[in-house]
Amino acid sequence: MPPAPTARVPGLFGITLILAGLAMLGPFSINAYLPSFREMALVLRTDAVALQQTISVYFFAFAFMSLWHGAISDSFGRRRVVLWGLAVYTLSSLGCAFATGVEQLWVLRALQGFSGGAGIVIGRAVVRDLHEGPLARRMMSQVVMIYGVAPAIAPLVGGALQIAFGWRSVFLFLALLSAGLLAAVALRLPETLPPQARRPFDARDLGRGYLALLRNRGFMAWTLAYALMFGAFFIYVLSAPVFVMSHLGLGEGDFVWLFGPATAGLVSGSALAGRVAVRWSFGRTLATAFALMGAASCYNLLVAWTAPDGAGWYVAYLFVFNLGMSLAIPAMTIRGLDCVPARRGMGSSVQLFVQTGFNAVIAALLAPLMWGSLVSLACGAAGLWLCAGAGVILALRLSKENPPAT
Fold first, then answer.
1. Checking phi first, is residue 310 left (phi over 0); if not, alpha (psi -120 to 50) or beta?
2. Residue 273 contacts by C-beta under 8 Å, 6 or more apart in sequence?
3. Which residues of 53-67 are buried (b: 16+ CB within 10 A; e: fewer)?
4. Three-state SS across the chain?
5. Given this model, what pLDDT does residue 219 score?
6. Residue 131: what are its φ and ψ, rounded to 5°?
7. Which of 30, 44, 166, 283 fits a 20 to 30 Å CA distance from 334?
8. What pTM value is reported for the model?
9. pLDDT tens, 31-89?
10. What is the gyration radius of the CA atoms in the chain, in angstroms?
């Protein structure tokens, strides 16, 4: 049992805000510049496919480096790694703002991806450093609830900046955002991993650790199920320009139709997760969450097939699905990390690597394949949800064979 967190770390709510802000960098890095795609294609003399690859490059770099952020923090401490990551992200964002060709953007977006994951990877480990069981789920739900507004705010901020100042201002905003987080971490985030709890940085030890995590069937089942579940929502995010402007017939300033309901669902589900974390069992929480997501998926298929008039019919799915998903996120994340109690930083890295790597596959392959029609998008999302449900069933069976350590 860890010592009472209030005895070790002051200002837990402030820490929650900082962790949520670090997690927000991901949605802002993806969603904020989506409304700028048309102008960027003209200014940089490129096309939508090449710009779509700036998202894929970011995801692949994010996924690769997420394997290392947590492991490095297990050796050198949480705080130092976050500070270095934010510094590199700030500089690469400034570079994006002054890019003159899409090829430069590919390189700079890769640097953003390499550095942008430090906060969210290590933030999960910080939560588990401070709490365990229901209290960890509650703190994680608070982080998700605050961070949940980012997918809606990001395209609104990006759209406003695009209309007022053009696409370069979006990347200048990202640089200012990361610089502000850098100052907040430097001033307010304490170190939550004491020196005596750290592991020596050794390549062979890291190799053994990653191999052990990959062989941990319970941990990998929870990790894969989470990635598939998140993909059922994220396929719409990655298809946002086509979904909003082509299928729904809306404009550059109307991305709120997608991200507004999605954010409302994320925030509502996270608030519910925080309220029931102590009162509901893990099984009841997960069953309720997947029932909500299943109902939303069936509704989405029906609406896409019948094609009623009005954008509201098509975005209701995002609210209900994200309500269920954000109810499940804290439970699934913490249960996965509980399978690897001696390597929580590395475990958090692998969780995010799998999720982000799968997002990169969706961005590069699945989203372009599915965004041709509303029906194909709905089928893709429903298929991902079904695979996630199968993954959870497998993870629960493996948990009975090997109960998670606490």
1. left
2. 137, 138, 141, 144, 145, 285, 326, 327, 329, 330, 331
3. bbbbbbbbbbbbbbb
4. CCCCHHHHCCCHHHHHHHHHHHHHHHHHHHHCCHHHHHHHHHHCCCCHHHHHHHHHHHHHHHHHHHHHHHHHHHHHCHHHHHHHHHHHHHHHHHHHHCCCCHHHHHHHHHHHHHHHCHHHHHHHHHHHHHCCHHHHHHHHHHHHHHHCCHHHHHHHHHHHHHHHHCCHHHHHHHHHHHHHHHHHHHHHCCCCCCHHHCCCCCHHHHHHHHHHHHHCHHHHHHHHHHHHHHHHHHHHHHCHHHHHHHHCCCCCCCCHHHHHHHHHHHHHHHHHHHHHCCCCCHHHHHHHHHHHHHHHHHHHHHHHHHCCCCCHHHHHHHHHHHHHHHHHHHHHHHHHHHCCHHHHHHHHHHHHHHHHHHHHHHHHHHHHHHCCCHHHHHHHHHHHHHHHHHHHHHHHHHHHHCCCCC
5. 92
6. -135, 170
7. 30
8. 0.70
9. 889 888 889 999 999 887 788 789 889 988 888 887 887 778 878 888 888 899 999 99
10. 20
- Please check whether residue 85 is in contact with residue 186, taking contact to mean a CB–CB distance below 8 angstroms: no
How many CA atoms within 13 Å lie on the side-chain side of 23?
Answer: 26
Task: Among 81-95, 98-112, 271-285, name the one with the lowest average pLDDT.
Answer: 271-285
Amino acid of residue 393: I
**Joined tokens for residue 314:** 């098509």
Is-contact 185 90, C-beta < 8 A? Answer: no
Minimal CA–CA distance to 152: which of 264, 52, 48?
264
Exposed, middle or buried, 273 (CB in 10 Å: 0-12/13-18/19+)?
buried
Paired tokens of 64: 């690769």
From CA 252, how far away is CA 243, in angstroms rounded?
12
How far apart CA 26 and CA 22 sit, in angstroms, is: 8
Q: In the block, which residue shows the tokens 């939560």?
A: 127
